[in-house]
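> Could you send the Methylenetetrahydrofolate reductase prediction when you get a chance?

Sure thing. Input:
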Amino acid sequence: MKIKELFEKKRFVFSFEIFPPKPTTPLERIYNTLDELKGLKPDFISVTYGAGGSTRDRTPQIAIDVKNNYGIESLAHLTCIEATREETCDLINFLIGNGVHNILALRGDLPQGQSAPKGDFRHAVDLVSFLREKYGQAISIGGAAYPEGHIECEDPIKDLRYLKQKVDAGVDFLITQLFFDNELFYRFMERADIAGINVPISAGIMPVVNKNQIERIVTLCGASLPQKFVRILHRYADEPRSLEEAGIAYATDQIVDLIAFGVRGIHLYTMNKAHVARRIVSNVSTLRETMHGPKGEEALYEGR
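Output:
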């Protein structure tokens, strides 16, 4: 099933993100994680390219295995930086030929020291346009959204305009960058609605379970940290088990509040930590079951 169809049929979509192990790490490690995640019954699992595309060769095979070996809808990340049209078609054809019809179209990170993209695509919108023209409705295309604006774009209005261009080019659904302040997400949703962005938007949530993790996150994506979150970090920075518990609790509170708002989906950045995902799913299981019925007039936030 295409992810577009999942959003059409369900009021609420719950999904996970995993990343391939480093090339020096046995591939079996990710399958051990998937063995545990399968029992949590996500609607789909996305597979990243890894930092800087370092694990891109492993992404297609893992995405195919998620679909065919685990029976879970799979979303393959595809970055276009330095990619050619021919290479892109080869990869998409390989995925389609093996049952994967969902693509998250991304620009990707610029290589260190490089100031502009190389290859046939400069921006994600170029990749989206190409995929939609080439493959039509044979694939479902997702895109990235940034509640606080992209780190490389200082003007949030311009950033929203770029997002609308991606949707107009053929994006079926959006998954947001992680955020820790729900109010920022709600304001983003209001602006997106005004801008005419009318595809489902899934909120990206990452449970922070160690101090180094949050430092990397802030550096890479510029997510702001509300005072409540900062207090947790200061209190438990040197107590790893307590910080993990607090991080799970904070992410759970975010998700409960988002579901009350009527968000169309939650995309949980699992960081390949199945036990953390299990705790969060257990915490929100009752709400998830309530929301997981077919989409209809009772949907809480029909505009998304």
